[in-house]
Design a protein that fits this description.
By secondary structure, the protein is an all-alpha fold. It has 7 helices and no strands. The chain has one domain. Its main location: membrane.
Length: 168
C-alpha cells in the first residue's frame, strides 16, 4: 500500500484528463458539463477501505491537488485546498456512518458537491464564470454527480478487492 497508493493516485489524476479529452463531446455538451473526479473517488476509497488512521492522506491530497491545479489550469488554485478538505469530510463520515456501500455513496455525493461548488465559487471570484448558482446546480453539479456516482458504483467492489489484495 505504501507504493501502490501514490502510483494509483497519480494514474487516476491523469485518467481524469484522458477521460475529459477523449469524451469531450459527451461530457461537455452545451449547456451541460460533467467533470470526472476519479482522484476524489480514490481518496474516498482509501479512507473507506484503509480506515481514517492514515495521517499522511491529507498531505497526499494536497500534493495531488497542487499537481491537479498546475496540470489542468497552470496555476495553483482551489484543488490544493479542496482535496484535503474532502479527505477530512470523508474521515468524519467514516466515523459517523457504518462503513458500507450506501454510506460510501452518500460520502461521495457530499464530497463531489463540495469539490464542484468550491470550483464554481473560485471561478466566480476570479470572474471566469458568470453563471448563476441555479445554472451551476442544474447544468454542472447534477451531471457531475451522476457521472461520479455511477463511477463509484461500478468501481466499488473491484477497488475493495484491490485494497484487500494490496494489504495482504
Amino acid at each position: 500500500m505504501k507504493y501502490g497508493f501514490p502510483i494509483i493516485l497519480f494514474i487516476w489524476l491523469y485518467l481524469d484528463g484522458i477521460i475529459g479529452a477523449a469524451f469531450q463531446p459527451q461530457l461537455f455538451h452545451y449547456p451541460y458539463a460533467m467533470s470526472s473526479y476519479l482522484v476524489v473517488l480514490w481518496l474516498v476509497f482509501t479512507v473507506l477501505f484503509e480506515g481514517p488512521h492514515n495521517n499522511h492522506l491529507e498531505i497526499w491530497a494536497a500534493i495531488v491537488g497542487c499537481v491537479f491545479d498546475l496540470y489542468y489550469t497552470g496555476i495553483l488554485g482551489v484543488f490544493v485546498f479542496v482535496f484535503p478538505i474532502v479527505v477530512l469530510v470523508t474521515k468524519v463520515g467514516y466515523r459517523e456512518f457504518p462503513v458500507s456501500f450506501l454510506s460510501g455513496l452518500l460520502i461521495v455525493f457530499i464530497d463531489i458537491t463540495i469539490v464542484t461548488f468550491a470550483s464554481f465559487v473560485a471561478n466566480m471570484v476570479t470572474h471566469l464564470t458568470s453563471a448563476s448558482v441555479a445554472d451551476m446546480l442544474v447544468y454542472s453539479l447534477g451531471p457531475t454527480l451522476a457521472y461520479n456516482l455511477a463511477a463509484f458504483v461500478i468501481l466499488y467492489y473491484p477497488i475493495q478487492r484491490l485494497f484487500d489484495w494490496m494489504s495482504s
